[in-house]
Amino acid sequence: MLNLRKIGAYISRLRKERDLTQMELADQLNVTHQAVSKWERGESLPDIGTLPLIAEFFQTTVDDLLHGGEVQEDRGSGLGTIVTEIAENRPERVAELVNSGEVKIEDLPELAPMIKASDLHRVTEKLDRNLLTTELIRRLAPFLGSETLDQLVCHFKDSDVEFEVIRDLAPFLGKKTLAAMVDKVADGEMSGKMVRAVAPFLDRKQLDRLVERVTEGSLDWDIIQSLAPFLSRESLGRLVDQTVAGELDYRKLAQLAPFLDRGHLDRLVREVVEGNLDWHILRQLAPFLSQETLSYLVNQAVEGELDPEQLMGLAPFLDRDTITRMLEEIEIEKLDGDFLVHLAPFTDKAVLSNLINRLIGR
């Protein structure tokens, strides 16, 4: 990896040996003195067209510059050769040298931050595809245009595609390639685990397609959990509809509770009160229900529309005043010891004592 501070220090040393100011060196290279100052402080590198000029001016090599003047007999001249060929607008020549083994392909990612995406494209399109490992493409990804990267990814074998690779490439992939990956997952050709890597970058149509395949039963439900933070309100609403219709196990939907909005949650609560959904879902939804909705449930219990037992799991989420009101207003015949045991930690001692006396005298 290029060491900017070491390179900068070397340029600074070469300048001082010539007894030049930063301004004088800048004039020689046709750059600003601020640029020279940034190089020497290790804050930036000279651009790829300027490096050969610096090397020529100081009668050294580009490789010496990029290695900070360190002598390394076995390092080869790959970096300097790549810079020179790119600077002279011969990126295809770089590919030829890499293909022939005269330049190491591992040198390419080192210099990628300095190379224009268009030049990098001209290099990679001429490279021997057998040399392009997934690791190399992952390192080049931030510097390649999306179309170039898409072309390279298309050459991946399914057996080579690992979660970590897709995760790192996903932010740089184009829509078509992402769509192709979704197709592979949907068709069972690629692991559903890959969805987690690309989910933040999928569009609504792609997400909806995956949701549809899951609800049809052709993909595992785990995929929905991976997609949940990125699903639209409408997609989540369709899952609620399927749950209410009995087409989807309520326990699965409950796993998505953190991502359901208040409208979805309130609808599920109403369906429970009306007897259309298993009341056990309330326990899983409770942490995400508003105090207004929780109060509504308490009212339903007080009015006899809901069995008080069904509210036991909600106790940690009810405020003390709401619990007190429920215990004071609910018919004593509907209370039992188990119910009070669940509510006891959240109830005033005086209210609890009064209820126990009422139960004893019942």
User: What is the β-strand count?
Assistant: 0
What level of helicity do the residues show? 55-70%
Taking all Cα atoms into account, the compactness measure Rg is: 33 Å
Query: What is the terminal-to-terminal distance?
Result: 82 Å
Low-confidence stretches: none
Choose one word for the global shape: elongated
Note the run of SSEs as H and E: HHHHHHHHHHHHHHHHHHHHHHHH
Structure description:
With 362 residues, this protein is mostly helical. The chain is built from 24 helices and no strands. The chain has helices at residues 4-17, 22-29, 33-40, 51-57, 62-66, 78-87, 91-100, 107-111, 117-124, 134-140, 146-153, 163-169, 175-186, 193-198, 204-216, 222-227, 233-244, 250-254, 262-273, 281-285, 291-302, 320-329, 337-343, 349-360. The termini are far apart.
Topology record:
Elements: H1 4-17, H2 22-29, H3 33-40, H4 51-57, H5 62-66, H6 78-87, H7 91-100, H8 107-111, H9 117-124, H10 134-140, H11 146-153, H12 163-169, H13 175-186, H14 193-198, H15 204-216, H16 222-227, H17 233-244, H18 250-254, H19 262-273, H20 281-285, H21 291-302, H22 320-329, H23 337-343, H24 349-360
Helix pairs in contact: 2-3, 7-9, 13-15, 21-22
